[in-house]
């Protein structure tokens, strides 16, 4: 199975899933969420990668840096956790990660993040990544799980210097704990990739509401889970050709599309699956191939 993938636009571009309408004004008495920012800085020190700086306020929580790659002991693996049970109405959580020159880091999550019922103002999840020359950063959180009535806006910005290498994934799936097939309210996705000078190389915006997502004319077809993977700074490698990547996703029951990003920024992949379990399996299968090609070692076994 194969899903064609159009190149991401480097201008404001049309929304890819549904036309964008202006967001409504905040209703009186609407919930006021948390505004929290966490930051992590990885640096090279003592012949390895260390977490040189961390600001991790509630609800963020991290583990210590693990060494899961005997053949690459300088590669640090860090689990990012939530101490609050997910994203709630009107939350605005920001995570900034910097990989300084020579650092090699893999940041993942302990489990998927639940997005609870929202309100007029969306729950925001903002991610800012900066990768220096000769650094490697793999950021692959588990899926965002949209509960019925969830209203979520996701924004990701990546700044990569020449010679930087990065793998960045993002995925969403629907779940109704009551088993009644209820869907989320609205989902907004935003991606920007910039040069160190601030030039936008890739910019994409998407919006879809739950009714359109689950309807008979859904742009997602029968898919109910969606993921993207951005690969920056990869050297030419047959393992990163569309055919082997799509085969890996196909085996897990996913549709997959692969294409170059505009302005020579890198490679973009999209995966579509019937459910969150299939999507997670497909994303993991593709991630293992890309990770090995980019880092020189297989990803360590991550217990969750």
TrEMBL record:
Function field: Required for maturation of urease via the functional incorporation of the urease nickel metallocenter.
InterPro entries, A to Z: UreD
Species of the source: Methylorubrum zatmanii
One Pfam family of this chain: UreD
Keywords: Chaperone, Cytoplasm, Nickel insertion
Similarity section: Belongs to the UreD family.
Entry superkingdom: Bacteria
Record's subunit section: UreD, UreF and UreG form a complex that acts as a GTP-hydrolysis-dependent molecular chaperone, activating the urease apoprotein by helping to assemble the nickel containing metallocenter of UreC. The UreE protein probably delivers the nickel.
The protein, known as: Urease accessory protein UreD
